[in-house]
Records
---
Amino acid sequence: MSTQRLWLRCEKKEFERRTAITPTTAKKLIDAGFEISVERDSQRIFKDEEYEAAGCTLVEHNSWPSAPVDVPIIGLKELPVSEDPLPHTHIQFAHCYKQQGGWSKVLARFHKGHGTLYDLEFLTDDQGRRVAAFGYHAGFAGSAAGALALAAERAGKPLGQLEPFENEDAMVEGVRQALGGSAKGLKVIVIGALGRCGRGAVDLFRKVGVEEDDIMKWDMAETAKGGPFPEILEADIFVNCIYLATPIPPFMTHEQVKVAGKERRLRVVVDVSCDTTNPHNPIPIYSVNTTFAKPTVPVEVGCGNPPLAMVSIDHLPTLLPREASEQFSTNLLPSLLELPQRESARVWVEAEKLFKTKLSEAVAVEGL
Ligand SMILES: NC(=O)c1ccc[n+]([C@@H]2O[C@H](COP(=O)([O-])OP(=O)(O)OC[C@H]3O[C@@H](n4cnc5c(N)ncnc54)[C@H](O)[C@@H]3O)[C@@H](O)[C@H]2O)c1
């Protein structure tokens, strides 16, 4: 059998420093007989030399369109908008299977080029669970952003621009310092605490020193009675990490915030789930996603009441590009090792089936 080749492309999405293949994963693939080409990319958190040291071949930045068509191209985020046909197999998050804006045009490119898309969001194991996801670090970084917003509020100013941290320790230290050396005395609530994001959110609070009894960890059992919940207003920070699958009553409301008046302890809400535009958003107190440049928006709280800041950034793991990539890539590795058998390996067969279904929907919509 011929050697399996794989081509790691650069990322073109602004601020995206993460990658689907880290030097550690690349080395493991090479040890298993893969040949890996890596596009030079100064945006990526891992240095080109780290890939070279792992045995990869460095190739020119953004040169994948001229790669041999039988070499799968792996990247993380969507490609820049274009109408160019895509003849290769692409492994990436393409955000075009849930009828997102422009979805059929993205798929039309594969139709025109006879290429294939394996969308990373839809690679699942035999239990239907995603093989790799970024949730843990989204929650971890979300709690950090929330704690930094609280520290800024205590200092009487809004939180300034957030930059990616070199690693988890640097983030934990940065949060501790912002809080004046310790997070002791802080009271927080995480809803969806048993999920990927929720576990990360709880871990950040533990690492910065919030006492275990002061971290309210709620999941399905605690919210079963239905909101709104007064307990949320009794914490300093509320981090929402639920996976919203069906409509539920809101966890908190504007009305509740106004009625609490000056008695409210809550100062920061972080919506990691970011169901911002969903009509059933369980935190209907805001309507925009915030950004690294401007991480918070003020919530309308009623005249004379203490402020309430909202964080709703939808790409939080980017704040921890190294660890987030390392974990994602490690989880993806077993599936990548099955790439040479992708005609029969369940994970790839299922992903291709889904691609073909979505492709035919797009072809109908585009009238191709
Ligand atoms: N903001 C970001 O950057 C970012 C990054 C990754 C994921 N996300 C989003 O975060 C959300 C959670 O993702 P995940 O991977 O952690 O999901 P997950 O399935 O691992 O966990 C979700 C948790 O929410 C709980 N839950 C669901 N409904 C609930 C309810 N009504 N009350 C209490 N708990 C409830 C579940 O029991 C589960 O424990 C998703 O919407 C995902 O898209 C956001």
Note: The first helix runs from residue 23 to 31.
---
Amino acid sequence: MIPAVFVEDIRRMSVENSLASSYLRCTQCKKQLPDSMNCEIHGANNGKKVYGAQIIFADPCHKLEVAVWEDCLKAMCQEFGVDDIDDESALPNLLVALRAQELCIRASFGINKAGTSMYLDVFDVSPQVNDAGAQAIFKHLANDTFVGAPGIVPACCKRFASNSLGQTVVKVDELEHVVDSIHLVCKTTDKPKMEALPAIDGINVKPSAECMKCNATCVLQTAGAPDSVQDFMTTLKNSFVAILSSSIDSNGALQVAHHRTIPEAEAQIFTKSNKYQAEQFVMHMKIPRSEKMSKKRRTVIEELCLSQRTPKRLKIANTLDGDAL
Ligand SMILES: [Zn+2]
Ligand SMILES: [Zn+2]
Ligand SMILES: [Zn+2]
């Protein structure tokens, strides 16, 4: 189970643009059929419909592109309010619904039948936070789950900076961690101010907000065409919002790439969770890990990945001290 994950992007699998969330494959060789319904090897074929999408997930350290198949994709659509999976707009709508949504994904790691490569199979995606098990597991994020590009980090506004290379970083004393964006929960303290941007025929929306981690006042900012920032313009005073911010400008305003208003009833648990995660991440950055230690850890992970195991559905249970099993 991997907590504190965001969806960065969703891409269709269909090579030819027939139906976005599914494609037809040859019933014999499983290769994707072109619109002509002729398999290169097996000729005319009625095909079998396969639902799937490439989803790019981002955890606090990295990004990872994973194929998500029928059951999981259908369940995601249902969970996040996308009614018709066969509609052309299903995947784009799903992305909008998921973009600033903190998720918990259940995945199994394993090795393919041929023994030639590793796989990561996502079988469940659900909104996170209220799950005590997910929170407990966050402690163990010191083991980076994903590999590759920078990810999305829970952090307080004060930890957010640009380094000398112009990269967006989370800063803890002298330490820097390059990020794609930070995840922050704040509460709006007044109605957004608006400025017209004649050059791009758009508007700049600037609500003031209180960072729920450090209680400092911070200025949020989002600019764009009126319809793209409309939702932000109408945010009421004293609303709780989860934001993903990918940069901070020279005046200290946080550029909001995506946001989501948190329902009042969930605000407290979200705030608590974000605070806890931000603290854990600071610890993750501070704890010096010796070469020996990380080597040992790596060996353990590699051995785990190489051992043949049938993927099982993980069950999360709490022990007395609140840790997850
Ligand atoms: Zn074929
Ligand atoms: Zn890391
Ligand atoms: Zn803060």
Note: The chain has six helices and 19 strands.
